[in-house]
Specification:
Blueprint: E1 4-5, E2 8-16, E3 36-37, E4 41-42, H1 44-53, E5 58-63, H2 67-74, E6 88-92, H3 109-114, H4 117-123, E7 127-132, E8 135-137, H5 141-150, E9 155-161, E10 172-176, E11 182-187, E12 196-205, H6 206-219, H7 229-234, E13 239-243, E14 248-250, H8 254-265, E15 290-291, E16 296-298, E17 301-302, E18 307-308, E19 311-313, E20 316-317, E21 322-323, E22 328-330, E23 333-334, E24 339-340, E25 345-347, E26 349-351, E27 356-357, E28 362-363, E29 373-375, E30 380-381, E31 386-387, E32 391-393, E33 398-399, E34 406-407
Parallel strand pairs: 2-5, 2-7, 5-6, 9-13, 15-18, 16-19, 17-20, 18-21, 19-22, 20-23, 21-24, 22-25, 23-26, 24-27, 25-28, 26-29, 27-30, 28-31, 29-32, 30-33
Antiparallel strand pairs: 1-2, 3-4, 7-12, 8-14, 9-12, 10-11, 32-34
Helix pairs in contact: 4-6
Length: about 400
């Protein structure tokens, strides 16, 4: 154990095992933490960058769903200087033990922690910092941990105020007094308690965490930590909030993922290349972007290796993507290797990696409130075909002219 704050050892755990079904079909072949963001980054890069800039060095990543796609990106922790002989990054895959002969697959994030209580005890940690891997934000965790110690809290919950109160039903809702002590907690309530929600950043007393998880597991009360773990600790009367200042967004749905890119295009979001706090990724070197004479690009991000000859407006064009002459791309995210053929019109869409939109095809709708549509990874929309708002082409599938796409399911 290397990381110490105020004389206490700190273990950081990133929960990266969820299926991410609300981001489907982008997560049909890739773990949610490995989903690209802004073309260059992956979602997990924001948590990992915050960790290393906060001076934390002992990091566990608990995996489950499609771990290979994530492990390839993690590269043993090298990009974040976490490839160490002692401490550093440690990947925690699902495992089977004497108590779970059928396999150690978790049913919720509290259960994922409970499966590792023995290892947490063996680590000798005094404090456990638990993070999710699908949020976009900047935060120095050291002051959060210091406040946790100063208040002798059972748990410290980092919170933020969201602009749309109705969206609070997607999150854990928190009410607190002037001193920050949590007075009320509700997990994804039907009626919001207010605009203050948990940011999925939690600081726990290690002994209390493992003991509480043991009790809940014996009672059969597992699931997500908002269901039983956090309410149990809040009942003690020593749970506190730590308000997060600045940008934060949970990009766990397609609409939120698309909105996050819009935020950055409109000048919101985060400063990605801040000298004191750069966001670090494991990226592949690309050649320069090629902008051809007939191209028109307005209010967009274009990544290295892209080749643009068409019209691109309010969009992100990923590494190595192609927009041919006469094609129009608006309010769209084109991931790495995507191709938009001549004459195609793509609007309010996500074209996943190596997806192809054929000559003269139409994808999405022009209305500002049109539902998103998605061309899955390595999927193809044939020339002249139409993919309507709210529809998808599954990864690797093909939409022929005259066919109808599949409806996107779930909350998007």
């Amino acid at each position: 154990m290397n990381t110490r704050i105020a004389g206490k050892t700190v273990l950081t755990i990133i929960l990266a095992g969820g299926k991410g079904s609300r981001l489907a079909p982008m997560t049909d072949q890739v773990a949610k933490p490995a989903v690209p963001f802004m073309g260059t980054y992956r979602l997990i890069d924001f948590s990992l960058s915050n960790i290393v800039h906060s001076g934390l060095q002992d990091v566990w990543i608990i995996e489950q769903y499609l771990p290979h796609s994530l492990n390839e990106h993690l590269a043993g922790g090298r990009p974040w200087d976490l490839d160490r002989t002692r401490g550093g990054l440690k990947v925690m895959p699902p495992f089977s033990g004497p108590a779970d002969e059928d396999g150690g697959f978790s049913e919720g994030n509290a259960h994922a922690l409970a499966l590792h209580t023995d290892l947490i005890r063996e680590s000798g940690a005094d404090i456990v910092l638990v993070l999710s891997a699908d949020h976009i934000y900047k935060l120095d965790y050291a002051p959060v941990i210091q406040q946790h110690l100063d208040k002798e809290a059972s748990v410290t919950v980092v919170t933020t105020d969201i602009s749309d109160k109705s969206e609070a039903t997607r999150f854990s809702n928190v009410c607190s007094g002037k001193d920050g002590k949590i007075t009320e907690f509700a997990y994804k309530p039907d009626e919001p308690l207010g605009r203050t929600v948990a940011c999925e950043v939690f600081v726990y007393d290690a002994v209390l965490l493992t003991e509480t998880l043991d009790d809940l597991q014996a009672e059969g009360n597992m699931g997500d930590y908002g269901e039983h773990l956090l309410p149990r600790l809040v009942e003690r009367g020593d749970a506190y909030t730590y308000p997060l200042e600045g940008y934060w967004l949970d990009v766990g749905t397609l609409s939120a993922y698309h909105q996050a890119h819009r935020d950055f295009l409109e000048g919101g979001g985060l400063e990605l290349d801040c000298e004191e706090w750069p966001f670090i990724t494991s990226s592949i070197t690309r050649p320069p972007t090629r902008i051809r004479p007939e191209a028109t690009i307005n209010d967009s991000f274009v990544c290295g290796g892209a080749d643009i000859a068409g019209t691109v407006i309010r969009s992100l064009i990923g590494p190595g993507a192609v927009v041919e002459k006469g094609a129009e791309v608006r309010d769209t995210i084109v991931q790495a290797g995507g191709v938009i053929r001549a004459g195609a019109k793509v609007s309010r869409a996500i074209v996943d990696r190596e997806g192809v939109v054929g000559d003269g095809a139409t994808v999405g709708g022009l209305a500002p409130n049109a539902r998103l549509c998605v061309v899955g990874a390595q999927a193809r929309v044939d020339g002249g075909a139409e993919l309507r708002p709210g529809q998808q082409v599954a990864p690797g599938a093909r939409l022929r002219q005259g066919q109808t796409g599949q409806d996107l399911e779930g909350e998007h």
